[in-house]
Automatic annotation (TrEMBL):
<comment type="similarity">
    <text>Belongs to the cytochrome P450 family.</text>
</comment>
<dbReference type="GO" id="GO:0020037">
    <property type="term" value="F:heme binding"/>
</dbReference>
<keyword id="KW-0479">Metal-binding</keyword>
<dbReference type="InterPro" id="IPR036396">
    <property type="entry name" value="Cyt_P450_sf"/>
</dbReference>
<keyword id="KW-0408">Iron</keyword>
<keyword id="KW-0560">Oxidoreductase</keyword>
<dbReference type="InterPro" id="IPR001128">
    <property type="entry name" value="Cyt_P450"/>
</dbReference>
<dbReference type="InterPro" id="IPR017972">
    <property type="entry name" value="Cyt_P450_CS"/>
</dbReference>
<dbReference type="GO" id="GO:0005506">
    <property type="term" value="F:iron ion binding"/>
</dbReference>
<protein>
    <submittedName>
        <fullName>Cytochrome P450</fullName>
    </submittedName>
</protein>
<dbReference type="GO" id="GO:0006707">
    <property type="term" value="P:cholesterol catabolic process"/>
</dbReference>
<dbReference type="GO" id="GO:0008395">
    <property type="term" value="F:steroid hydroxylase activity"/>
</dbReference>
<dbReference type="InterPro" id="IPR002397">
    <property type="entry name" value="Cyt_P450_B"/>
</dbReference>
<keyword id="KW-0503">Monooxygenase</keyword>
<dbReference type="Pfam" id="PF00067">
    <property type="entry name" value="p450"/>
</dbReference>
<dbReference type="GO" id="GO:0036199">
    <property type="term" value="F:cholest-4-en-3-one 26-monooxygenase activity"/>
</dbReference>
<keyword id="KW-0349">Heme</keyword>
């Protein structure tokens, strides 16, 4: 989705807002619509093309309240607008579970994804990113950064999950096809055919890993899932497979999108790039600002489990509520000058990883790999600029970029270094 400030586009009216249509996330920005909803209709109903009604919350406090309240808002029905009729994996994967079952799957895997673990893996991750950046940028000229960024999630989490390096490229690409099966960058036919192919390819790789870990357990998520005790029993083979798929999708749908939006934001704002280059200590803050700015997950869906009062609206059980992360991360009530990309922003309680019991378990490795990438860029690039059309992902769920041509100017070899 384009990051245009609302003032730079014609103001919408409530009757023209459509938060469902994936094409609007390709052609334009929803920030004007989100700001109007925050101001005039913070609890807002819309119908999907199949007639399902969902309620949108766009203010930071309301989004936070919905995501924190897992007693009244459940995840098992589905967590994205694409499956308003119900997700067939509901109750069987970590992202589609409610407590206490969710806790039994999440808790044992947290140490593998912790910041401590990310620091332990950082030297290996840094070496891989250094090779990727140098291979693509050493000669300068135009390169498509989406090809580079698509490699990042498996660099950050491939070993941790248990995916063999030989499969990283295919896994990332098919995972994105599973998220946006009708986007031209990933489609291999109709949306249903693409989705079927993506699942087939991913499940083939994951089943091979699962079979190997049955014989040779390792210190990774797949091995942990195979030996997990969930209420006195082990996960069955299908549940292990679906949860492996969930961990892969969680990695692929966040890190590369933030990295692409970070590069685009810095390319369009040379002064911000010069600020970060002059002050490498700002790298962690710049990454957090990129997470707020990109908000890689536009929304998270919940279903009411009991009667609730949401703002001034009373909802009964079974209502669908879309918490718009991208809108919350631009809320003027929370963020000063929210439509400015500020790499030195100090107060930044963004919700890019969600909040509450379902906060993204892969946040630490994602933050680590993004910091390493930006530090490597500082050491290897003198500057860069957009060199052609930027194409955005056709998805109301993931705020992605599928084409980002960047003209890079490498630092002279005698000056190049890594500021990590």
């Amino acid at each position: 989705m384009r990051m245009a400030e609302p003032a730079s586009t014609p103001p919408p009216t409530l009757d023209t807002i459509d938060l469902y249509d994936p094409q609007r996330y390709v052609d334009s920005s929803q920030h004007g619509a989100w700001r109007l909803l925050r101001d005039q209709a913070p609890i807002w109903a819309q119908q999907t093309p199949d007639g399902s009604t969902f309620w949108s919350v766009t203010r930071y406090d309301d989004v936070t309240a919905v995501l924190l309240d897992d007693e009244n808002y459940g995840s098992e029905h589905g967590t994205i607008l694409a499956v308003t009729g119900g997700d067939p994996a509901g109750g069987r994967t970590i992202n589609l579970m409610d407590r206490p079952r969710h806790t039994r799957v999440r808790q044992p895997t947290i140490p593998l994804m912790s910041m401590h673990a990310a620091r332990r893996h950082a030297p290996r991750v840094r070496d891989r990113i250094r090779r990727i950046v140098r291979d693509r940028l050493a000669a300068g000229g135009v390169t498509d950064w989406t090809e580079l960024t698509l490699a990042l999630p498996m660099v950050a989490a491939g070993d941790v999950i248990g995916i063999p390096e030989s499969a990283w490229s295919d896994v990332s690409r098919w995972a994105m096809a599973g998220v946006a099966p009708d986007d031209p960058a990933y489609a291999t036919g109709s949306a249903s055919a693409t989705l079927h192919r993506a699942h087939l390819e991913l499940f083939t790789v994951l089943n091979e890993v699962i079979r190997d870990r049955h014989r040779r357990p390792q210190d990774d998520v797949v091995s942990e899932l195979l030996h997990l005790d969930v209420g006195g029993r082990r996960l069955d083979q299908q549940e292990v497979l679906l949860n492996c798929y969930s961990f892969v999708m969680g990695a692929v749908t966040t890190t590369p999108q933030v990295a692409a939006h970070l590069v685009l934001a810095l390319a369009e704002r040379p002064e911000a790039w010069h600020t970060v280059r002059a002050r490498p200590d700002l790298v962690p803050r710049a990454v957090e600002e990129a997470l707020r700015w990109a908000s890689p997950t536009n929304h998270l869906l919940r279903r009411t489990l009991a009667p609730v009062r949401l703002g001034e609206v009373d909802l009964g059980p079974g209502e669908l509520v879309a918490a718009w992360i991208g809108a919350a991360n631009r809320d003027e009530r929370i963020f000063t000058d929210p439509y400015r990309f500020d790499p030195a922003r100090t107060i930044n309680p963004h919700l890019a990883f969600g909040v509450g019991v379902h906060r993204c378990i892969g946040a630490p490795p994602a933050q680590s790999v993004l910091r390493i990438l930006l530090a490597e860029m500082i050491g290897q690039l003198d500057g860069f600029e957009v060199a052609g059309p930027v194409v955005h992902l056709r998805s109301n769920f993931i705020n992605g970029i599928t084409q980002l041509p960047i003209d890079c100017r490498p630092v002279p070899a005698r000056q190049a270094g890594v500021l990590v």
